[in-house]
Design brief:
- This protein has 296 residues and is of the alpha+beta class.
- The protein is built from six helices and twelve strands.
- Helix 2 runs antiparallel to helix 3.
């Protein structure tokens, strides 16, 4: 009796604790990339659930039908040859399941790696996201501002995050907007995302990178394009300029809060790889256009 009540208490405690848990962020998508991945996850869970239920049902049936019974001591069970249909089913169904999931995975991989569907004709917002021990730096080259440990984005517009690291390999991940992608030193990787809804989302480093890894997080706020433009103007009016000395201080290992600056570290520490040339060209063209405008 005591054992029975202990099992009941354990189950009740687990159920009670689970009712207070927040929904899984990967199953609460706020963008087209994350929505595609959430569908794939639910599809995989559904297929695996069917397989598990069928296997356990067959197991219970076999255990009941062929359980040990009171037979004579000289009883010998009949000799049964292998059934080709059973073997075809046992091998064929898993092959079909793996082939189908492989097809869906490859198709989804191409979709989430490309520009989000529905935003192909829009100009993407380019944001350089670089990590250091243990913080995130977000540079907006076109807007001429930089933030630390938070990033604001407009909704219904493609986002192009260009990722790299000033320390060990990290993993840039916003669960409600899309999957993770690695940020490495001396190499630039690109992640395409978009947000369908306004709100605040959690972002983090999903790759262990030292003792400060657990707090290597950042906040994402999705807002309308109008609010985003207002925020840019407010930053340019109120924020302090980012100097090379200040940025090198931020690169030192440790945790810091949120901060905002006018200018980006890309001006004195260009990003690695081929995009650095693209950035230099874009800066030069912007300077030329401003100079022509001032001459007029």
């Amino acid at each position: 009796m005591i054992k029975k009540w202990s099992h009941f208490t354990l189950i009740f405690t687990i159920v009670t604790m689970l009712t207070g848990c927040e929904p899984l962020l990967v199953l609460d998508p706020k963008g087209p990339q994350a929505e595609r991945q959430a569908r794939d996850i639910l599809l995989s869970i559904g297929i695996m659930s069917v397989v598990v239920i069928v296997v356990f049902a067959i197991l219970i049936y076999i255990l009941v039908k062929y359980r040990d019974s009171k037979q004579n001591d000289d009883y010998e069970p009949p000799h049964i040859e292998g059934n080709p249909w059973v073997e075809v089913i046992c091998v064929g169904i898993p092959v079909l399941i793996v082939a189908y999931l492989s097809f869906v995975s490859v198709q989804s991989n191409y979709i989430v790696e490309s520009v989000p569907q529905g935003t192909e004709n829009q100009e993407p917002l380019v944001i350089y996201a670089s990590s250091s021990d243990w913080k995130w730096h977000f540079s907006y080259p076109e807007e001429g501002i930089e933030t630390v440990n938070y990033v604001n984005i407009p909704t219904n517009r493609p986002l192009e995050f260009r990722l790299y690291s000033y320390g060990p390999i990290t993993s840039f991940w916003i669960p409600q907007l899309g999957g993770q992608k690695y940020a490495m030193s001396d190499m630039l990787t690109t992640l395409h995302l978009a947000a369908d809804e306004t709100g605040e989302f959690m972002g983090r480093n999903a790759n262990f990178s030292g003792k400060g890894f657990a707090e290597n997080t950042f906040q994402v706020e999705a807002m309308s394009q109008n609010d985003f433009s207002k925020w840019i103007e407010e930053v340019k009016e109120r924020a302090n300029p980012l100097t090379e000395e200040k940025f090198r201080e931020l690169l030192k290992p440790g945790h810091v809060g949120r901060s905002t600056y006018v200018g980006t570290h890309l001006e004195f520490m260009p990003p690695p790889g081929k995009h650095s040339d693209h950035y230099k060209k874009s800066v030069d063209s912007d300077q030329d256009s401003h100079q022509d405008h001032s001459n007029h």
